[in-house]
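Figure-free illustration: sequence to structure, shown twice.
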Amino acid sequence: MRILLLGGDGFLGRHAAAVLRALPGATVLTAGRRPAHDLRLDLATAQAGPLGEEIAALAPDAVVNFAGAVAGSAVKLAEVNARGPAVLCEALSLCAPKTRLVHIGSAGEYGVCAEGDSLSEEADARPVGVYGATKLAGSLAVAGSPLDAVVLRVFNPVGPGAPAGSLPGRLAAELRRAAPEGAEGVVKVGDLSAYRDFVDARDVAGAVGLAVAAEGPLPRILNLASGRAQQVRAIADGLVAASGFTGRIDESGAGSERSAGVSWQQADVSAAAGALGWHPTTNLADTLRDLWLDSAAPATTPVVA
């Protein structure tokens, strides 16, 4: 099986690459902006016809798209998250229509959810900001295409390699900074009272492998999450426990603008269990312990997909 991976240099993409390379008989090709990739590609500017011809020349059985932007201007978010998947779908439809497409969506597409409810794939999508709206546009392009395609709608991913811009990655770095101060150490964060459904990045990678290898068509959209909402404060508590930090977490700082309007999110993951036989297997405490241990590794030069 030949698999073309887009966005494999990112947080989730790196975990998925390891799973995909371990599939029996798999050859993993990569696409991105760096010369080292098998396919030089920027979905923000690519044209469908030439891109389709380049993909067809690589003859992939499956394309996995992790390419996306979580921050930046509205133009950047629209180019990468909305235009990118649409161009990719058109390129495949023109030149490689039998190729399976596995696209990574986001819980941000759902937006507001009533407290206590679990979001199924049939729930109304009501994103509260530009990020969620552009991710939804990209997912709709995939789900509405004639391709053999599935959107894996990932809820709040956590795990080793979490980016510094995410709450878990930032907290781990701040805990290491403040640890030498002992009981006098203070880590300042925003309000941590909202509820989120966290999922280990390695469990997400496992689902990607199952989606690529699955026989027959898949549902158009599948949620990937733990199926259990927890307060965001659990991230801080878990990292404090893993690190042995004895100082104080101060919640008076500025929070995330992207998620401020959503106080509760919890997923129904029964569809992924039925379609893929997938179940999340890593509990949050173990995820945060592994994130903490990984954050002690020497920093490497960041790469651009």
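We now fold a second protein in the same way, so the two outputs can be compared directly.
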Amino acid sequence: MTSGITVAVFGAYGHTGRFVVAQLRDRGFVPVLSGRDADKLKMLAASESGLDARPASVGDPASLDRALAGAAAVINCAGPFATTAAPVIEAALRAGIPYVDVAAEIEANVDTFTHFADRARAAGAVIVPAMAFYGGLGDLLATAAMGDWSAADEAHIAYGLSSWHPTAGTRVAGAVSRQRRGGRRVRYTNGGLEYRHDDPPTLEWFFPDPMGPRAVIGEFTMADVVTVPSHLSIPEVRTYMTVEAARDISDPDTPTPAPVDERGRSAQTFLVDVIVRSGGSERRAVASGQDIYAVTAPLVVEAVDRILTGRTRTVGVASAGEIFDAPDFLRALSPYISLELRP
């Protein structure tokens, strides 16, 4: 049972953080609100009766220690994760509690695996990066699609978004990633990340009904190129994005998400189509739902629940598909996504 267990949320007042706080409360956890802006924390605490607000800064380790004191786990929702992930992970290691984040930044996730894998494994600690729509969901779907395969030749993850109204945090994180890449784009090929100066291709992807064939940006690379190869033997991992959504995210005038229902979700819909191929065989997993930011909350809270109740397969730094039973995890998300596995 996890009822009454305290979970710290760093970046609790952000767009995704608010969904995570609500999801934690729905699941019986007690969120501790934390983040860098004390005024925003006070406002959130005033609207979330009975919750503790603990301001903290990534440049002040003692403040992070105070924020995590007594918590059973910490969820980091505060980007850019190139700046926040390492300090909050260090605080979690000092506190001896699991760390989970929702980072979509490719380079930040690489940093987490690179810098903390050995220490976390030696300490028996659990660190799960990219436990979100990008990185986590795709990895779970690819892992479920693999089934009993120990290896595959290629994995393709196509994102069919009706639109993409980015949050301010998404824009900042994207700017940080572009700066770190020196303006280059990245793809995962021949078992490693490859940085390129050319434009990505545009092609047609045949999404399952009712979406059907759509123009997509090929090699529109997301965090899946870090999470999937971290534990699955697949030398080619490609991700794709519908042209309309890619245009939205690239347009500086695209507005932020607007709520349309009682949960605060936007009208955005998504369909994630994952295909893994080995030799002449192909397997597929498909998930659909509403609002990529809102669906991150049940993903990350389900992860925390499973970690705290011992439903994990490993320790150290691990992606969703490695540490959890992927088909079972996806089935647990049935209130939020529709799932189809096509072996």
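Summary for the second example: The chain has a mean pLDDT of 97.
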